[in-house]
Amino acid sequence: MSLRRRPLAALGLCAVLGGMAHAAPEPVRVGVTRGTQAEIMDEVQRVARARGLTLDVVVFGDAAQIDGALAAGRIDVASFEDEQGVAAARSVHGYAIAPIAPTVALPLAFYSRKLLSLNQLRPGATIAIPDDARGMARALILLQNDTLVTLRESAGLHATTADITGNRLNLKIVRLPHARLARALDTAAFVAMESDDAARAGLQPARDSIGIEDARSPYADVLAVRDADRTQPWARELVAAYHSDAVAHFILTRYQDSVRRPW
């Protein structure tokens, strides 16, 4: 397993938050991916320490290992994926893990070198969306939210192009691998890209997009713990630290709404 453990200052075995003593793993080990998730959790760590809760931020080089580490007890919390990812880990691997609170939304957005807004979109225009199941569904749901397509109601969060029942501008929707989406900016009217793909192209959702997922997107990431820990006081205290004004200010200052808060 490729991971890096960040050293923390030691605190006592018991701490007080809001006047109530609590017992927690010492420290609470939080698994994250590199980049945004790790940066935010460093700030959460600082806030939690001030509130009496010790966090050890464990940075994984491979996100696919985090749920297994959580289920096996090598970490206590995971902070890197959305509810659909947690549900898939339960279904596919039988992991007894569950979400306890939203963290941040890393939004999929529409980017264009031809349009200043979606109002300039012409009938018959070509647009590009991701061709993987999750990226495609996110793009189609955002297209529907912007009234560009209508989707079959039963599609839910698993929509595909086969679920399109209305396309008011007769848009030509091209599905592309993630690696080819940025190049499509040269030819397509606009391109739907997730945050990682946009960042590699030098784009920021809040600054450069002409359409963006809402902060309360169903694809917002979550904190996940083992089922047995869902009601532990330290889990509630971790949520309180993450949802604090200090962390909200850090996210806004650091990312200027390119990372969005669903809380």
How would you concisely characterize the structure shown here?
The protein is α/β, with parallel strands linked by helices and 263 residues long.
Write the layout of secondary structure elements.
Blueprint: E1 3-5, E2 14-17, E3 20-23, E4 28-33, H1 36-50, E5 55-60, H2 66-72, E6 77-82, H3 83-93, E7 97-102, E8 109-111, E9 126-130, H4 133-145, E10 149-151, E11 164-167, E12 172-176, H5 178-181, E13 190-193, H6 195-200, H7 205-208, E14 209-212, E15 221-226, H8 233-242, H9 245-255
Parallel strand pairs: 4-5, 4-6, 9-12, 9-13
Antiparallel strand pairs: 1-5, 2-3, 6-15, 7-15, 8-13, 8-14, 10-11
Helix pairs in contact: 1-8, 1-9
Describe, in plain words, how this protein is organized in 3D:
The protein has helices at 36-50, 66-72, 83-93, 133-145, 178-181, 195-200, 205-208, 233-242, 245-255; strands spanning 3-5, 14-17, 20-23, 28-33, 55-60, 77-82, 97-102, 109-111, 126-130, 149-151, 164-167, 172-176, 190-193, 209-212, 221-226. By secondary structure, it is α/β, with parallel strands linked by helices. It folds into two domains: 3-106 and 218-255, D-Maltodextrin-Binding Protein, domain 2; 109-212, 3-Layer(aba) Sandwich (D-Maltodextrin-Binding Protein, domain 2), CATH 3.40.190.10. A hairpin with a 2-residue loop joins strand 2 and strand 3 (20-23). It is elongated and about 60 Å long. The chain starts with a strand and ends in an 8-residue tail after the last helix.
